[in-house]
Design a protein that fits this description.
By secondary structure, the chain is an all-alpha fold. The chain has 15 helices and 2 strands. It has a two-stranded antiparallel sheet. The longest helix has 35 residues, at 252-286.
């Protein structure tokens, strides 16, 4: 309760809304600490050779808690929006160079979830770690090079045992179903008398792209090219397993695995939503001004919204 020190007051002109600004961000850091606590507990559950049904249930419940916290963090932005831009400008310049880039805990969350170092959006040619305080720097560096939640989920998916039995090969059956679907859709386009010929050709071109994507899913060497180009990140085997789980989610044995994948998609979407809401807030408060951390403010946040997703492969399935 004594950690709220107003810079504006030190400078002789107290800005009323600086208290709100400080408290909101201190609360963020407390919730970040809890999120990291939950992520580390998930690592302990997942980082083993054998994971049974009860272990998956534990991970689902921990992810659910993280996601509920994220919903709360998104709602906190509404409180900051009770400030007017002029109220914010009363103290904003006094904070320079204070910045969200200095939040070591937020960077730890990103790294531990699985945001790749090479996929980070840069700004001004500066490594994001240059903004981290020296006492937290080693921890952040270690998180970059350690296994992430993405890695552990990928390994877990690769061990899924239901892809092939003596009398059933999931992937062969899925390929047959896809070929029938595409053939049927093409027939519907061809026989649609209301469609002009030019529009039919456009539809057929789109289906060529669809066929190309599916062919890569059935051909490991073609899929490897998608991995190399960054179009996909999840391994060939893990992608097969994730698709099986999503398609057969109503089978009792796959219910918890399906819930787990759903919670990971929710986690990614909620983090993206928070980034987007943050972008809107900054646009409202400072417009096109440079951020206090030296980035291009709202423009940086908008680009990070799309680029910093982790579980896009699951969403696209």
């Amino acid at each position: 309760l004594k950690s709220q020190v107003l810079v504006s007051k030190k400078n002789g002109v107290e800005a009323h809304d600086e208290m709100l600004f400080i408290i909101t961000h201190q609360v963020y850091e407390l919730w970040f600490k809890q999120i990291l606590f939950e992520i580390d507990s998930i690592f302990e559950v997942f980082d083993r050779n054998i994971i049974d049904e009860s272990h998956v249930g534990i991970v689902v419940s921990r992810l659910e808690r993280i996601n509920v916290i994220q919903e709360l963090l998104i709602d906190q932005i509404k409180i900051l929006e009770t400030m007017t831009p002029m109220d914010f400008l009363d103290f904003r310049d006094l904070l320079t160079p204070a910045s969200g880039f200095q939040s070591a805990q937020f960077r730890l969350i990103e790294n531990k979830i699985g945001l790749q170092k090479d996929n980070r959006l840069g700004y001004g040619g500066v490594d994001y770690k240059e903004k981290i305080s020296t006492d937290k720097l080693d921890e952040v560096k270690k998180s970059e090079d350690s296994k992430s939640l993405f890695n552990l989920v990928e390994q877990w998916l690769e061990r899924t045992p239901f892809l092939e039995f003596d009398d059933f090969n999931f992937w062969d059956q899925y390929r047959i179903a896809v070929e029938k679907m595409i053939l049927n859709d093409k027939k519907i386009i061809e026989m649609n008398e209301k469609l002009p010929e030019s529009e039919k050709q456009n539809h057929f071109k789109q289906y060529k792209s669809t066929e190309k994507m599916f062919n890569a899913f059935f051909d490991e060497s073609a899929f490897s090219k998608r991995l190399d180009s960054g179009e996909n990140r999840l391994s060939y085997k893990a992608t097969h397993a994730a698709l099986l789980i999503l398609l057969y989610r109503d089978q009792p044995i796959l219910h918890n695995p399906y819930r787990l994948l759903s919670k990971l998609i929710d986690l990614d979407e909620l983090l993206t939503t928070w980034r987007y809401k943050h972008h809107l807030l900054v646009t409202r408060m400072i417009g096109k001004k440079i951020g206090t951390g030296g980035s291009v403010g709202a423009s940086y946040l908008k680009k990070a919204t799309g680029k910093h997703r982790v579980f896009d492969d699951l969403t696209s399935l």
